[in-house]
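Our consortium's second objective concerns turning raw sequence data into structural hypotheses that experimental partners can test. To show how far this objective has progressed, the report includes one record in full. It was chosen at random from the queue rather than selected for favorable results. The single chain below, 241 residues long, was entered without modification.
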Amino acid sequence: MEPIHTARREVRYGVPAADHVLFNRHYILGYSYYFRQAKWALEIVNPENPDVTRMDNFRPDYRLPENFRPDLVDYEHSNFHRGHLVASANQQESELQNSETFLLSNMSPQAPGFNRGVWAQLEHDIRRLNATREILETYVICGPVFYFDQPVQCIGEDDADNGVSIPVPNAYFKSVLAETRTGSLRMWSFIFPNADTDEAIPTFQVPTTKVEQYAGIKLWENLMGSKVAREKGRVRKYFGS
């Protein structure tokens, strides 16, 4: 594992391990060679800026070894979206910042209804939370979940036009950590099936400890004490509509 640069503001509350940690200008990503996609992506949400155009310049991340690196061809005719982990609209202070979110290392194969539905709605609600006066800063970490007792579909194909085989996650997790102006910390965590759903977002809320169990990572590990333990073990009332 590469050393984590503790000077990066995103890692203030901890960062999980990964095969390859990619340091982008405005977010950090932990890549899994085994799954050919990110194991987690960690960001601090930026205020919305409608003056910055969504770049839509999807492209491979050439910092990854070729035999583990997704390419555009892997998603062609797959019936899955190139689903953002770090949301494009969360990173739009500049075109360069927005462009970084379109690296394929930040993508994971998501069912179209899921990507356009609850996942997009949660992203929107997080930005609304971050814009409220009581919140100083909002940290978000998310990534895929694989259930090894269930079938796993793959997209792409090894050695076919430089493609790789990419397992399709059974589910996705997202954990939100917000710091308030009074110095308190609030935590919300979710596990969503990678499928279209009409169920409301609070249906998918879980204790942060459950995310750790299913995703196989430690979240916010720099936070210690009994209050943090209680927060990680609770399901806080959803902040969205």
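The partners drew two points from this record. The first helix runs from residue 72 to 75. The chain has a mean pLDDT of 94. Both points have been shared with the crystallography group to help prioritize constructs.
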